[in-house]
What does this fold into?
Amino acid sequence: MFFERPEGGETSVLVHIEFNSLREQEDPVEFEELARSSGTDPVCFIKGSRKSPDARTFVGEGKLEEIAAAVQEHKADLVLFNHTLSPSQERNLEKVLKCRVRDRTGLILDIFGQRAITYEGKLQVELAQLQHSVTRLKRGWTHLDRQKGGVNLRGAGETQLELDQRMIRQRIKNINKSLEKVRAQREQGRRSRKRAEIPVISLVGYTNAGKSSVFNAITHAGIYAADQLFATLDATLRQIQLPSFGEAVLVDTVGFISHLPHKLVEAFRATLEETVQADLLLHVVDIANEAHDYYIEQVHEVLTEIGAEAIPCIQVLNKIDLMPGFEPKIDRGENGKPFRVWVSAKTGAGIDLLLAAISEMVTDDVVVKELTLTPDQGRLRARLYSRGAVSHETINDQGQTVLNIKLPRQDFERLLLEDSGPNSMDLSA
It folds into this structure.
């Protein structure tokens, strides 16, 4: 950081206030998990209720005294609020509490900063952190002039605060340029996959729902998976083989969380584009969690925010090994298509059903069939080969060519039109 703040540490006091004016409250249990995931040691959890936040210190005087007493008693280095604080509220609280104060957004950013591994991930986290901190650069810096003013040397020149803000804005500009290059590279990869007609399946879900475990169960990739919030930040892509279909690409992405800070959605746009551009979404749900219905709603909200709500989706109800009496199965809608699969990524139960359901969904717009061509249909055979649609060819006893084809339905229908004529065969059979 570019400004003076108390030194951070490992011991923290947690604060959660219920407000009558707010319809949706943050989850205190999830907040404690966030705090532990960040590496801090919560020694005290202070809760309370209030009609609305105090404009100056967010909490009332009585609650502020209670927090200050807890900080002194436990010698806490950090106070974490399960809310969004304004920059002035953070500063005012730090003056009174004499220790570092962080809100929910700052806490999530800290976790992201610890978990980022790839160059792209680190850039995205740094961008979100800088965007969050630029409005908080207000300390005792303003009295420090870097240079004298203009005419007759009267008035202040550029203050340290202004210099810091300018440096941060320049860094944000540079990071955005670098991320644009990353987006261009990702887009090139997506275009290549599209030309090769390889479908992309993206895993989405609430943080710690088991997306990486499902990813490992399907791909055997062995990527990092842990029982903690935001164990995965960087998008991971692996090629997989789907039964009765062929090649596809599976993507593991960052987990969502309730009231995901908008700065994170913006900063992780390059990663989230893998979800927006996917052909199919696998929405992984921790069915053993009592709050799974609420988490499903929160994921739908984020998908709507990033423009992915219209993409076909299969719900993957994970962790059935923790639910006695539950067996792997596929649930189908009125149209007969799979919309939900019950699995356990830990034991592998139901993963075969999930792969079958994925194949069924991605083949909806792909024609997979066997064609028998007569010797005078050589032009049609050549057109099929030119599109890379032929997976196998044999000659039957009548001297006819038998082709196993796979191609997009749109291309297949175009072939029907091209081959229409008095001697054409019925390809739709």
Notes: The domain at 198-364 is CATH 3.40.50.300 (Rossmann fold). The chain has four domains: 11-112, 117-179, 198-364, 374-419. Residues 1-8, 139-156, 422-429 have pLDDT under 50 and may be disordered.
